[in-house]
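Duplicate of #3305? Posting structure anyway:
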């Protein structure tokens, strides 16, 4: 359902909610390749493997928005994907083209089918009742206002649709509106038997027949069609083989074969016809086409003319005992499927688009820093002098904290180990009878990795970004904290359908980060082309996981959303998944957003959707160094305690 106008502001996706919707949709439909998108109306398209949720919920508060979109997923994933008949939908919509009120006919059919599907959802999964109740509370308030508006304007067709919705959901909107609505409630009372038939309908075709009878009655006294499409049925909705509403079995889909080839027919092999023998299924894991004793549910193999779903006559060559291979133990027989054939099988992502789909053809190339030139070394000295007034006080504060923690008293504490001097329990009103065992000298046990966006949009921010990087490098080097600084970009000129080369320029690596004069290579980072943030974060996560430090921190310097080939629509979600994966591995991910003076709310929302609350916005890139000082101080102090 969609009501209202599209917002003129740039639409920003809520990454967490999107992942939840994708997980729910794929779980309910049993289709791992299903995509979830936002559209004017909620719909399920089996042929294109697409489920859409209504944009009507987009501007509601987060709780209402989540409940509304989840209810759309329930209706389409549990209902339409299994119980809506595509043939009945096409037949009814074809008849609507010649109807006198085509828009109302479509809307009433969509509403009645949704009511049937909601009944199925509540029966199969009682936990969805709470979400549907939340959905109807929102729609009740909205539709009550719209009902009065339609009646005052004389738009009786729209009012009839809303009154029908009120009957199905148990609302009494028509109270006090009989006179203004020319007796709508009385006219609709004649249709109550049809409504009751719809509530008991088993198939979509029965709903369509009831809607046709309803439209025959309404067309006598409605002279104008509906103006708003509160509910809508698309021609491609439904499935070819729908289940009845009373179906109680498990919802299962036949697994598709891994390959899509067909073996040529051999001599004597023919397609099954009535009265002919049914042959057993053959697959490429077998050495020949001889019939076997056992039959399995196949996931790989080639389609043939042989039939494998029927019993067959026994054969003298059948073995009395057969050896079958499961997944737990590798067979030693050459005739069994070897484990080598399972290697390299693609595992679909658990949620969202996942790295398997988005970065399937992205490649990583790591570039070592070149020897710095004299000009680069001179430029680095100038940046070091600019950063020194900020770096040195920070270094002194960290060292002072370390010293205070080292010499802090370990006795007279309120908790800890019990002291031997227990007379204070009698002589003092508030005795401190415990002490703390002397701990080793505190040290900074942390490793930092800094990712720098080297896309073309950084051309006016790179100089100040380098100053911030010098501040980080000099501070961490003085405190003997290993760190790595890497710039990343995607070479758009070399992107093809088979490969998307991503380059990683290592300016400072972990091995040489503590050496004197190792920072001059930072000046080799320059703006390049595109940026694929999710892919870069995953690669840096792999490098940080090799470190043994207790605290591992990944900081991303960027000026906005990721932008790369076939990445614009899913970049935010892919980046969020990469950040979420890194945090689950114990890596703290922080984003530094570099703006151009004015930070739009849409930009803040986009960064929050990718990095959560660990997103720091720097409105003026000239103030980057000053704003990095408290961030670095907090992270370093956190690594001490």
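Output from current build:
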């Amino acid at each position: 359902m969609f009501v209202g106008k599209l917002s003129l502001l740039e639409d920003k996706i809520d990454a967490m909610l999107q992942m939840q919707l994708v997980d729910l949709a794929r779980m309910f439909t049993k289709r791992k390749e299903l995509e979830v998108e936002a559209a004017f109306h909620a719909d399920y398209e089996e042929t294109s493997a697409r489920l859409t949720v209504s944009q009507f919920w987009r501007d509601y508060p987060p709780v209402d928005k989540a409940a509304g979109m989840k209810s759309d997923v329930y209706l389409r994933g549990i209902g339409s994907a299994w119980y809506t008949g595509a043939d009945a939908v096409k037949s009814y919509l074809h008849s609507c083209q010649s109807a006198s009120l085509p828009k109302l006919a479509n809307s009433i059919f969509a509403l009645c089918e949704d009511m049937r599907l909601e009944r199925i959802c509540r029966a199969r999964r009682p936990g969805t009742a709470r979400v549907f109740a939340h959905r109807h509370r929102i729609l009740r308030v909205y539709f009550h206002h719209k009902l009065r508006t339609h009646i005052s304007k004389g738009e009786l067709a729209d009012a009839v649709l809303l009154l029908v919705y009120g009957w199905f959901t148990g609302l009494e909107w028509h109270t006090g509106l009989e006179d203004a609505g020319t007796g709508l409630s009385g006219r609709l009372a004649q249709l109550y038997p049809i409504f009751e038939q719809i509530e008991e309908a088993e198939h979509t075709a029965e709903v369509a027949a009831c809607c046709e009878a309803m439209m025959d009655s309404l067309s006598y006294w409605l002279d104008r069609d509906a103006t708003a499409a509160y509910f809508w049925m698309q021609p491609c909705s439904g499935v070819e083989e729908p289940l009845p509403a009373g179906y109680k079995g498990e919802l299962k889909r036949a697994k598709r074969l891994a390959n899509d080839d067909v073996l040529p027919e051999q001599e004597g092999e023919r397609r099954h016809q009535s009265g002919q023998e049914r042959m057993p299924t053959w697959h490429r894991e077998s050495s020949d086409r001889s019939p076997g004793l056992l039959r399995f549910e196949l996931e790989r193999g080639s389609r043939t003319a042989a039939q494998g779903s029927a019993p067959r006559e026994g054969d003298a060559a059948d073995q009395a005992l057969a050896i079958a291979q499961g997944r737990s133990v590798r067979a030693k027989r050459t005739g069994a499927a070897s484990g080598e054939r399972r290697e390299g099988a693609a595992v679909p992502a658990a949620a969202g688009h996942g790295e398997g789909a988005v970065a399937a053809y992205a490649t990583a190339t790591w570039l070592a820093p070149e020897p710095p030139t004299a000009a680069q070394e001179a430029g680095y000295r100038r940046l070091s002098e600019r950063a020194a007034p900020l770096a040195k006080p920070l270094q002194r504060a960290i060292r002072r904290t370390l010293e205070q923690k080292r010499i802090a008293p370990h006795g007279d504490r309120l908790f800890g180990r019990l002291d031997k001097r227990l007379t204070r329990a009698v002589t003092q009103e508030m005795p401190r009878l415990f002490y703390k065992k002397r701990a080793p000298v505190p040290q900074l046990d942390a490793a930092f990795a800094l990712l720098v966006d080297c896309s073309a949009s950084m051309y006016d921010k790179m100089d100040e970004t380098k100053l911030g990087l010098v501040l980080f490098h000099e501070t961490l080097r003085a405190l003997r904290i290993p760190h790595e600084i890497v710039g990343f970009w995607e070479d758009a000129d070399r992107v093809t359908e088979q490969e998307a080369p991503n380059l990683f320029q290592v300016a400072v690596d972990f091995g040489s980060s503590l050496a004197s004069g190792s920072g001059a290579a930072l000046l080799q980072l320059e703006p390049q082309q595109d940026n694929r943030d999710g892919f870069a974060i995953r690669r840096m996560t792999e490098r940080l996981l090799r470190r043994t430090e207790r605290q591992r921190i990944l900081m991303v310097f960027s000026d906005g959303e990721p932008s790369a080939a076939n990445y614009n629509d899913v970049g935010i979600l892919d980046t969020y998944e990469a950040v979420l994966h890194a945090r689950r591995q114990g890596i703290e991910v922080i984003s530094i957003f570099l703006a151009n003076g004015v930070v739009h709310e849409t930009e803040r929302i986009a960064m929050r959707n990718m990095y959560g609350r660990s997103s720091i916005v720097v409105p003026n890139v000239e103030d980057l160094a000053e704003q990095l000082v408290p961030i670095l101080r907090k992270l370093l102090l956190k690594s001490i305690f």
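Confirmed duplicate; merging threads. Residues 374-407 form the longest helix (34 residues). The chain has a mean pLDDT of 80.
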